[in-house]
Amino acid sequence: MSNRRVVFVVGSGRSGTSTMAGTLRTLGLHVPQPEVVADATNPKGFGEPRWVVDLHTELLQRSNVQVSDARPRAWLDTGTTSGDHATRERVATWLEEQFSVADELVVKDPRASWFLGLWRAAADRCDATSSYVTMLRPVTEVVGSKQTYYGQMGAGSDQGAITRTAAWVNMMLHTERATRGQQRAFVRYGDLLDDWTQPVFALGEAFDLAGVKTAMAVDIAEVHRFIDPSLRRVTMTWDDIGVPDRLRDLADETWQALDAIASDDSAKNQEWCDQLRTAYAGQYAEAEAFAHSTVVAQRRTAAAQARREAAGQPARSAADHVPHAVRALVPPAARQKLRKAMGRERPQGSA
Amino acid sequence: MPDIASLEGDPAYDVTWPWTSGEPLVPGLTCVFRVRNEARNLPWVLPPIFAAVDHVLLVDNGSDDGTADVARRVAGECGAGDRLTVLDYPHRVSRAGGEHLATPATSVHSLTHFYNWCFSHVRTTYSMKWDGDMVLTPEGTGILRDLAWQLQSARAIVAMPRHPLTVVDESTGWLDLSLRFLEPWVYPMGPDFTFVKAFDWELREFPPGVERIVLQQGLVLEVKWLDADEYAHWRRDGVDFTNTRLYRKLREFEVDEAIRNGDPEALGGLVKVTAPEGVHIIDHVSRDWLWRQPRPLVQHSLPATLKERVRP
User: Which residues are registered as beta bridge partners of A20?
Assistant: First the structure.
């Protein structure tokens, strides 16, 4: 049997995926280089290979799917993209190059869940064993953290929180489905911060990772320095996030089901996830139907814009987006000054 | 009241769809086999299918080679005994072509009725027809396993190209890469997706505008055994192959004849594959050979005159 292992760290962003990837790297697993550089949102680094992030970004674009996409059918779109032979060859070739550096790899990217079928096939081609660590963090903390670090989507409203909560449910339930029947583990972010040795030791045993099994004292000490419990900077409850009750209940139950699976990956708990996935798809389809008029209107706007662009007409100026009644409230003198400032002065004589 | 009463008035073989009887369809994919004497192929065919789909429904139509027992044994070996349903369809089913054309669609002897009866036993939201000689590759298995849940939020049919492999002996085979042999296999369950009668065989209906997903080449093999002489009766019967719809059948017949006559190279589109010592040719082609080949696998296509007729 081959010694090659590739551990995919998956789950929603802001759930400790970077902490897990960084821990495994510190213990000797190889993170393919170069990595995405650390920034204020992740001061200890992301543990994300640049090549993987670029690939996933390209494939998401090709699939017309966003990183945090709440649509259940987005999985079908990324799934069909994942089957492309040329892409499989590209990924398998890259993975083979990484295995020439080390036998045990850790690949982490919050986008990875969308393309697990592709990665599994590529790992199989390289005669490597794939395993999956899904990081779990309460939905309120994930959404709160995203609101804090990535900004609110709907200005001053909870629209962003609603979309993000829905995307979290979609991501987590389908990641569970995509990794089912494979070598996998679910790790609570809180457990990792409280005492990382227990969940990480268990991963080493379950996935047969030499890096973890043969870790030396110096490596372990290094992980203690790396894991900083204060990383859990955002702790929120539903009181901080305005999400409708139905979605909130579904998100809560999703958390409970995944929390149960983390302790007991049984058929019973998997069925619970199946039921929640069906319920989520139903709730999403209903919301989609409810908001269908908005979709139709946006489609018309986009089509009109495309027609204008095709005809070579300039897009409307920013001022044109302000309703006439509002524009009329601006005094004529101020309006002239504004026009001058924007370089859009009217010819002499016009009103 | 059944949805389709059998012409012969045999209530056990009337068709009642689950949406009529009020039985719920659970999210998932069921693979439906209608088989006669496939005991030889099932040890290759079933394991990847059990790895890919939620349930397997095997309808035995008069096998005398222990097909059903082999299916149960393989299911047990795969730990999938509880995901296999074996049913028996004892009626003689008309052969494709003229015999089918002459058989009324609701007769228990009609392919159309046979298919509707088989699929009426499916209890998942998607179903897939599969033949007892089709072997999925490991990557095909992975893709189908993912589709089984990915499809649940869509209403789509899935077409897959398949590649006929004529097994000459344990280590030698000829792979036909002249045509894509592209057919839809996976359909949603529902009143819009039932079977009707076509000229030569049955046809599964689908509503206009339904989404169609086409999978990659190189995921499915169709196994033909040279020693089984499957086309012997064709030679005797003098089947008329000038018909466009039967072009694929003509190709299968030509391939069989060419290999039998020792001149397959002359036919074109055939690739000889030899397995390493100790590996069966079916395992070699499906597990190790296909994914390594450059794409597109199928270089040739239908003759231009036939293209328009085949792809309406």
Answer: none
Interface predicted TM-score (ipTM)? 0.85
Pick the closest to residue B137 from B26, B44, B230, B267 (CA basis): B44
Query: Which position has the token pair 């089913």?
Result: B93
B2: in domain? no
Domain of residue B203, residue span: 11-310
Per-residue confidence (pLDDT) for residue A320, from 0 to 100: 58
Q: B295 and chain A: CB distance < 8 Å anywhere? A: yes
| Angle value at C-alpha B245, between B45 and B192, nearest 5 degrees | 70
Residue B140 domain-assigned (yes or no):
yes
Q: What is the DSSP letter of A35?
A: B
Residue whose structure tokens are 């096939």: A121
Nearest CA in chain A to B297: A85
Cβ neighbors of B46 (< 8 A, separation 6 or more) are: B56, B71, B74, B75, B78
Q: Out of B146, B154, B218, whose CB is closest to A178?
A: B146
Sheet holding A184-188, edge to edge: A104-108, A5-10, A129-136, A184-188
> Which residues of A make CB contacts under 8 Å with B?
71-73, 75-76, 79-80, 82-86, 88, 117, 120-121, 124-125, 174, 177-178, 274, 277-278, 281, 284-285
Q: Are A243 and A142 in contact (CB under 8 A)?
A: no
Q: What is the pTM of this model?
A: 0.86
User: What is A58-90 written as a DSSP string?
Assistant: HHHHHHT--TT---TTHHHHHHHHHT-HHHHHH
CB-based contact (8 Å) between B293 and chain A? no
Domain boundaries defined on chain A: 5-293
Strand partners, B203: B196
Q: Going by C-beta distance under 8 Å and a sequence separation of 6 or more, which residues neighbour residue B165?
A: B173, B174, B175, B176, B221, B222, B223, B224, B273, B281, B282, B285
Q: How far is A130 from chain B (nearest CA, A)?
A: 13
pLDDT digits (tens, 9 = 90+) for B142-201: 999 999 999 999 999 999 999 999 999 999 999 999 888 889 999 999 999 999 999 888
Is B27 in CB contact (< 8 Å) with chain A?
Answer: yes
B238 CB-near residues (< 8 Å, 6+ apart): none
> Which CATH number fits the domain that encloses residue B212?
3.90.550
Residue B5 included in any domain: no
- The shortest CB-CB distance from B143 to any of A72, A117, A178 is to A117
- Quote the tokens at residue B231: 């086309």
Q: Do residues B165 and B133 make contact, with C-beta atoms less than 8 angstroms apart?
A: no
Domain A5-293, CATH: 3.40.50
Which residue in A249, A279, A240, A234 sits closest to A137, CA to CA? A234
Let me know: does A169 contact A280? Beta carbons within 8 Å. yes
pLDDT in tens, A210-264: 999 999 999 999 999 988 777 666 677 888 788 899 999 999 999 999 999 999 9
- Cβ A72–B153 below 8 Å, yes or no? yes
Give the DSSP H or E segment for B124: strand B124-130
Report if residue B23 sits inside a domain.
Answer: yes
**B139/A80 touch (CB, cutoff 8 Å), yes or no:** no
Cβ–Cβ contact B215 with A under 8 A: yes
- Do strands A129-136 and A5-10 pair parallel, antiparallel, or not at all (unpaired)? parallel
CB contact under 8 A, A85 and B152: no
pLDDT tens per residue across span B27-46: 999 999 999 999 999 999 99
